[in-house]
């Protein structure tokens, strides 16, 4: 209770100091840009780490609230800076994301992003594309593991997919050669492949993983995927304690659906990564339960929930916050706050395993707030 | 007469032995019922003359499984004879005599050809398909009765464009360290694969065709593919048509595969989707498939992953011949010998459901020869 009084005092003080440097008010959506809030950390003595939070659209704000509650209850030393997507295109970023939001992520080096619905129309870049290009997010990491207590047809999945996020088939370079003939360019560079391979092996080492598999189609696309494989092999030599193997992608798909335990860490170029990471998400129960983290240049980490914004259940307190919670755990691990990460992770798993408080999409009847309270209780 | 003797026979056999009689009864019952099948296929005079089929054993387990097919065809006295040609994955190109033979015979049965990874020789499989313009690759993935898998009610046919797309082989190094690969999509190829897919659905009484794409990212290329599919869909109003993005498709395949019927895809996605579907329905060892063009057809194991097997399988002779046997049944139908095809398929399905003779990938321990003998014994 003392912390609540402290919070109120601080808030009333900072209200007078609302920085005009914050967002041009996005009024039409109804979100008010909130002042910077400080979570009192009376127990810990560590300097609170600042992190940017993008609640997003639709169910975003509800699940972001969930995360804040759980972090509060676990006394995680994180200070959130909330930013919202505006409704005017910012000319400095050519999208609805403002320059301030991006600067905030660059400064804080960590962020958490909820689902964002890209508005349809021309004259602006998609939000995900803006984030990726401006922050140089080159690797997308998705840990996929079966949640005990939520049974799918596959109960023993435990793998991590690391996908190169900047080039490959998604370079967007297409053109019509003549009427009825279209060409699309797939670009693979040594620099990007080395970067993502380095990150993959580094991740495997720091998280105690034994094997890294590179997924490719170099028997057909010999030069492009051949270059990717060469880079992976080079990096593999620097980590002799980690087993390295190469698997052709059709073989990989088949093995994944027959026996997912064969894989540990998977590293792949953009398109294959997209498909395989969604396949793995399907194995464990869908996008509503899958965490994801984007790694950028200079150690920036932006954890995100990859599911959609679900506008039909927005505001009804029915959303499942698991994906965003697990992504925030991934963010904590990146910040090396392993004990807090484990605490929250175990609490989430225990809540789902108990089966008493499950949201509608998992087959239960609880609301978002009930689920969050259960997780806090299980800490 | 069979209808009256069947219950009497059952009684006689029940009183004699134990559980082995059930098998016997089931087989007798099945065969009695099948011999009552009315013959509706009326051949033209002279259709029974033996047809020549090019046989390419290939690498790895290829010779083993094609040998199995030859044995079964002999046992059935099927009106086909094989012309063998040796082709191996490390040849630079397919020998001209093989291509001439296929052009003459119009039909070929092939084991897997190994493709060296990462450089050197271009894939011979792709070469064959481009030379003979086999533009449609078909894989039929279905649950076999008696073979338990994690998913039930799977019956998917994946029709994949076989000549262009990501496999155009047009790559070059722009500057050292930067490589480009071209993905080419043409209206002509997209239209003809869409037409083939809808025609297949129409002729085989399939209800739904799903186009798999990634047009939200590759707007022009996959957009062109989708446009062609939509145009063809309007000409078949009785068949439902929908579209699905490839990553969502893989997710749905793993959780709810019963929603898919016929799927039409460009080259690369087709490879992935076909192998995923084969994996969920029982593995690459049992899925039949083929490549077909306007003039020629090559039948081979459906899903391409691991169709050359590995060293151990070859040495121990434990490769699974079921996929190639079912593909050869497809070939017999293509050659218009439907009753031979039916007999072969029934025999194979019976062997699988009996669970006694199964190779390692299906959970058993039999060798290829044992499975072949069981199939021959089950032919009626």
From TrEMBL, chain A:
Q: Which cofactor does it need?
A: Mn(2+); Mg(2+)
The record ties this protein, via SMART domains, to: Iso_dh
Q: According to the UniProt entry, where is the signal peptide?
A: none
Protein's organism: Nelumbo nucifera (Sacred lotus)
Q: May I have one GO cellular component term? A: mitochondrion
Name the chain's protein. Isocitrate dehydrogenase [NAD] catalytic subunit 5, mitochondrial-like
- MF-aspect GO terms: isocitrate dehydrogenase (NAD+) activity; magnesium ion binding; NAD binding
Alphabetically, which GO biological process terms does the record hold?
isocitrate metabolic process; tricarboxylic acid cycle
Return the PROSITE patterns for the record. Answer: IDH_IMDH
Automatic annotation (TrEMBL), chain B:
GO molecular function annotation: isocitrate dehydrogenase (NAD+) activity; metal ion binding
Keyword terms, alphabetized: Magnesium, Manganese, Metal-binding, Mitochondrion, NAD, Oxidoreductase, Transit peptide, Tricarboxylic acid cycle
Q: Name one GO biological process term.
A: tricarboxylic acid cycle
Give the subcellular location. Answer: Mitochondrion
One family name in Pfam for this protein: Iso_dh
Give the similarity note: Belongs to the isocitrate and isopropylmalate dehydrogenases family.
Q: What is this protein called?
A: Isocitrate dehydrogenase [NAD] regulatory subunit 1, mitochondrial isoform X1
> Origin organism of this chain?
Nelumbo nucifera
Q: What is the lineage of its organism?
A: Eukaryota, Viridiplantae, Streptophyta, Embryophyta, Tracheophyta
């Amino acid at each position: 209770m003392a912390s609540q009084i402290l919070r109120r005092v601080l808030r009333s003080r900072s209200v007078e100091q609302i920085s005009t440097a914050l967002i041009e008010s996005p009024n039409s959506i109804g979100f008010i840009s909130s002042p910077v809030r400080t979570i009192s950390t009376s127990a810990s003595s560590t300097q609170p780490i600042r992190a940017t939070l993008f609640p997003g659209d639709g169910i975003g704000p509800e699940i972001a609230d969930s995360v804040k509650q759980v972090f509060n209850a676990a006394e995680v030393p994180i200070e959130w800076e909330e930013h919202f997507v505006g409704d005017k295109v910012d000319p400095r970023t050519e999208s609805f994301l403002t320059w301030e939001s991006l600067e905030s992520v660059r400064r804080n080096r960590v962020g958490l992003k909820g689902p964002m619905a890209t508005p349809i129309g021309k004259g602006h870049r998609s939000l995900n594309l803006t984030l990726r290009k401006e922050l140089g997010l080159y690797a997308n990491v998705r840990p996929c593991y079966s949640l005990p207590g939520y049974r799918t047809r596959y109960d023993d999945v435990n793998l991590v997919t690391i996908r190169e996020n900047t080039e490959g088939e998604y370079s967007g370079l297409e053109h019509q050669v003549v009427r009825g003939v279209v060409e699309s360019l797939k670009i693979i560079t040594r620099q990007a492949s080395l970067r993502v391979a380095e990150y993959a092996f580094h991740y495997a080492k720091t998280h105690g993983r034994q094997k890294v598999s590179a997924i490719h189609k170099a028997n057909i696309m010999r030069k492009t995927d051949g270059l990717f494989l060469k880079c992976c092999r080079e990096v593999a030599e620097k980590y002799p304690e980690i087993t390295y193997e190469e698997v052709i992608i059709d073989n990989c798909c088949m093995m994944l659906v027959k026996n997912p335990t064969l894989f540990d860490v998977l590293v792949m170029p953009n398109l294959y990564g997209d498909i395989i990471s969604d396949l793995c998400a399907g194995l464990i129960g869908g996008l509503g339960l899958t965490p994801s983290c984007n790694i950028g240049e200079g150690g920036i980490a932006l954890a995100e929930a990859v599911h959609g914004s679900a506008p039909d259940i927005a505001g009804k307190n029915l959303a499942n916050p698991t994906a965003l919670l697990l992504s925030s755990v991934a963010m904590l691990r990146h910040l090396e706050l392993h004990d807090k990460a484990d605490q929250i992770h175990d609490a989430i798993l225990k809540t789902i395993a108990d089966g008493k408080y499950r949201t509608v999409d998992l087959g239960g009847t609880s609301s978002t707030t009930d689920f969050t309270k259960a997780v806090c209780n299980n800490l | 007469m069979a209808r009256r003797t069947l219950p009497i026979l059952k009684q006689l056999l029940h009183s004699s032995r134990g559980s082995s009689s059930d098998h016997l009864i089931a087989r007798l019952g099945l065969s009695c019922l099948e011999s009552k099948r009315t013959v509706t296929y009326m051949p033209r005079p002279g259709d029974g003359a033996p047809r020549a089929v090019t046989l390419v054993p290939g690498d790895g387990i290829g010779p083993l499984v094609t040998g199995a097919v030859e044995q079964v065809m002999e046992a059935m006295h099927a009106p086909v004879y094989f012309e063998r040609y040796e082709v191996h994955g490390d040849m630079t190109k397919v020998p001209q005599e093989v291509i001439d033979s296929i052009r003459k015979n119009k039909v070929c049965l092939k084991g897997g050809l190994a493709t060296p990874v990462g450089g050197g020789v271009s894939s011979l499989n792709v070469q064959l398909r481009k030379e003979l313009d086999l533009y449609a690759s078909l894989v039929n993935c279905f649950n076999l009765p008696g073979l338990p898998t994690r998913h039930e009610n799977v019956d998917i046919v994946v029709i994949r464009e076989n000549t262009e797309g990501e496999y155009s082989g047009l790559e070059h190094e722009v500057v050292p360290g930067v490589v480009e690969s071209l993905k080419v999509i043409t209206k002509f190829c997209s239209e003809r694969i869409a037409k083939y897919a809808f025609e297949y659905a129409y002729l085989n009484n399939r209800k739904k065709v799903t186009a798999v794409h990634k047009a939200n990212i590759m707007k022009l290329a996959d957009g062109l593919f989708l446009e062609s599919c939509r145009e063809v869909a309007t000409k078949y109003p009785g068949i439902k048509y929908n579209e699905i993005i490839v990553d969502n498709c893989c997710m749905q395949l793993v959780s709810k595969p019963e929603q898919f019927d016929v799927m039409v895809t460009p080259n690369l996605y087709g490879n992935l989707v076909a192998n995923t579907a084969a994996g969920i329905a029982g593995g690459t060892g049992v899925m039949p498939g083929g490549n077909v063009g306007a003039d020629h057809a090559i039948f081979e194991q459906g899903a391409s992953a691991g169709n050359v097997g590995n060293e151990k399988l070859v040495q121990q002779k434990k490769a699974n011949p079921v996929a190639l046997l079912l593909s050869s049944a497809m070939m017999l139908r293509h050659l218009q010998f439907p009753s031979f095809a039916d007999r072969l398929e029934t025999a194979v399905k019976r062997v699988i459901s009996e669970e006694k003779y199964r190779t390692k990938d299906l959970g058993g321990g039999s060798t290829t020869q044992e499975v072949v003998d069981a199939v021959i014994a089950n032919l009626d």
